[in-house]
Amino acid sequence: SRQTTFQDGGEEVEEGAVYNVTLKKVQIQQAANKGARWLGGEGDQLPPEHTVRQYETSKIRAIKAGTLEKLVENLLTAFGDADFSYISIFLSTYRAFASTKAVLELLLDRFGNLETSGHGEVANLNSFDSEVVLRAEIASVLRAWLDQCSEDFREPPDHTCLLKLLDYLKNNMPNSDMESKVQNLLKQFQNQEAETVDGFCSTSPSDLVDGEELEISNPEEFSSFQDHVVAEQLTYMDVMLFKKVVPYHCLGSIWSQRDKKENKNLAPTVRATITQFNTVTKCVVSTILGTKELKIQQRAKIIEKWIHIAHECRILKNFSSLRAIISALQSNSIYRLKTTWMCVSKDILLMYEELSEIFSDHDNYLTSRELLMKEATSKFANLDSSEKENQKKSQKRLQLQKNKGVMQGTVPYLGTFLTDLIMLDTALQDYVEGGLINFEKRRREFEVIAQIKLLQSSCNSYCLIPDQKFIQWFRSQRHLTEEESYRLSREVEAAADTNILSPKSQKSMVKRISTLFLGTDVITPPKEHPPKNSPLGGSSGESTDSASVSSCEFNHSETEDVCVTPISSPEDPLKKGSIGSDKGSGSTKCSIFDKGSGSDKCSIFDKASGPDGGPVSDKSSGSVTCSTSKVLPVYNRQNGGACIIRVSMDGINDSVYKSILITNQDRIPDVTQRALLKHNLEPDAVEDYELVQVISEDKELVFPRDANVFYGMNSHVNFDFILRKKA
Q1: Is the CATH number of domain 232-488 3.30.230.80?
Q2: What's the CA gap between 139 and 418, in Å, rounded?
Q3: What angle do CA 376, 377, 380 make, to 5 degrees?
């Protein structure tokens, strides 16, 4: 019998690199001698006194931190070190710390120059003492790069890196299958126009038939589309966009830079997915409120139709459009329609509540996280309903799907992954002592990236055909602005105005909501009345942040494209005394699949895993951070000498928060400078600002110039700060 155990082997330090070492021990039980069989023992049944235990021990080395040169060199040695996932991790995350050009030059010019490889760095690679082996290893890395991340080489119009690679292959591996592959990829890129992502939801006039104008939805036309057809078409659009998402665009260090002027085209594949999400949400609002003449019962029927469509999305395992629809129904302008909601049938209300509960914020959105992982690779949705009638309908619809014999993929709500990645980026350092790149951070990020890739792969199972009639209708909708939807909502049910939150309860809600958000770029909930001329989603129509790929209308402060109203499931509107609270789309909290944590705990990957998924000892699971604690710094809790605070700019982006990591060594100038950088302001202006902590509605804590923020802050209230220009 073979039994495998892992043991911490400490660290190994080389020039320019630090490695984690794990010892893998395999126990082999054997008979003491051939004559032992005469005693009646057969294999594993041998008496203990007639067996000996032998162990095979092998060393697994995983690079923890290193220079760029060492990390690239490790692409060639990782397989020999039994760090089998290293190449995939590096290729998925290197864009956070290096360019394609820099990595390719190191790989080809420094390690791949076979004419001079007898000297220099390559000669030091013990595993590669022959040119043939070296060529094979480089070919293996290049093949993985082209297979997993071919988009890295898309550089219109010149495609410099791809041409460099092609030149290398012609000289060193002529007539190889890889040379053909690169030539085909180059032709493919050259035949395509400069990369544009078809968002399916663009509402610019150029996308419409000549002479056709955007229009507010006609209720009869919308009603003519069957519920399952709408859900299938939304899923078709979501699938096409999600499959195009370039995973590294989701990395916190990249996505968090999108609001800089020079980065307006950054992460286009993620932006397209977000735009689609917001367009679905706006479509829901427009169809419900767009026609003022509707009777209450007719408006209730439209709400019922959208709940049925959301249920169909659930059957299709499309969590993106499902959440978009639920977010719209929980938005202030729809949620406040008390009389309309009272006309929605009880069965459908129960269905709505069950669908809303999927995105409950309880235990860090544990329900939606567990459901996503459970269904990521399952053939069909696992539907459970506490209401018998809904259970019958669900099973009937599911059986129809199964009868088609086509497996379903899974489309996730991308905001969950964006939040997790932005929090990892905030909590873990990019560099460690000696200026080495912190590769432990990249291993953590890859655990999230790998899940995105798995779900993208599952989307190949969908077999959906576009319905041009619906897509044309969907694209031609004129979406209501935030101000319009709010005004129409009040005109439809003016009596509900008395239920709008008072300033005091509004402040209380802000405080409750703020405990939900451990991500960055958070916008507080709406004030009592939306501001005039408030654009819906900024210039691009987007309304999201790293923490929330969320909806639209509900963002009463569009200083940045973020939306954060709570996604917790509302109670049955029939039982509510007030339907005035702002219910909208939400953002996920920071921990990554932290199943064991309650809502007051937020650790990210408490335990690390070994290269093959097995547990490793404490030492190797610790990450290279400013804190020696296994639990990473989080918002609203001081832990291991570090924590995450949120800082807004008074008078500029006063409703936009940025997450800042602080330690017990940080003083006011350090934190102020970091906050200015995060808000894309001049960091040299530190002396012009003062930092204050918001204690309550009418209390603030002002810090002296050289105060230690960590020890000076009030840790019993939310870690919310304001950076204010001095008078």
Answers
A1: no
A2: 33
A3: 90
